[in-house]
Input
Amino acid sequence: MENIPFIPIIAVVALIVVFMFFWFVPVGLWIAAVAAGVPLRIFELIGMRLRRVNPNVIVRALISSHKAGLKVATADLEAHYLAGGNVLNVVSALIAADKARNISLDFTQAAAIDLAGRDVFEAVQISVNPRVITTPRISALALDGVELIATVRITVRTFINRLVGGAGEETIVARVGEGIISAIGASDTYEDVLENPDIITKTVLDRGLDAGTAFEILSIDIADVNVGKNIGAELQAEQAEADLVVAKAKAEEQRALAVARKQEMTANVQERRARVVEAEATVPRALAGAFREGNFDISNTREGA
Output
C-alpha cells in the first residue's frame, strides 16, 4: 500500500523519458525518409541532433531532391544548414534549374549564391521567366532646351554565373536612366525623340549596361514619353530678367552720379556767389577807410572831371 503513491510519479517519468527518446531519436522522420526511398539511417538522424542540425529540414530537402531525381549529399545539406543557409530554398532552386534543362547549376554554386544573400530560387525563376523592371519617370533635356519625361521597361534575365559579386537591379535602373538622359541630351530637338523614340533604346542597348551585373538585359522598351517644360526658354527669360535688373542697377548708378555731379556744381556756384557777395561787401568798407585816411579826395576828382 505504501508504494501506491509512487506509481503516478513513475508513470510521468516514463512518459517524459519516452517523449525525450522520440524527440532525440526522430523515428517518424526516419520512417518518412525510408518510405520516400531515401537511404537514411536512424543513427544519421541522431547525429544531426548531436550536431544541432534540424533533421526535419534535412529530411524534407532529401525527400524533395530524391523525388526530383537529384542526388544531394546529406553532409552538404548539413554543412549549408550550419553555415546559416536556407537549405530548402537551395534544393528548390536546384530542382527548378534541373526542370528548366537549360540552366547549369550545381549544389556548390547554389549554396554560394544563397550564402551571398541572394534568393537563388527567385534567380532561377527569373532566368526561366524574364522579369520586367519599370523605371521611375526620367527627366532629360534635348539640345533645344525642351524637357522630355520618359518611362522605360527593362526586360532582364538572371545571369547565374554572375549572381555572386554582381550588381543588382538598382544598378541596372541607374545605368539605363543615365543612358536615357545622354541619348535625349544628344538629340537636336525634342521632336526628333518623339518621332523616333527607338534612338533611345538603340543608344542605351549599345552601351552594354548589364556588364558587371547579375542580369542580362534582353530588351529596353519606351513605355511613355511626355513633353515637359521648355527649360531653355525659361532659362533665357530668367537670364533676360537678370540682365534687365543689372541694366536698371547701372542706370540708377549713372543717375545717382549725375545727381551728385549736379549737386556738386550747384554747391560750387553757390560758393562762388558767396565769395562775390563777400567781395562786394568789402568795397564800401574799403572806400570808407580810404576817406578816413585821406587817400581818396573827392574835390580832386571833381576838378579833374
About this structure: The longest helix spans residues 231-293.
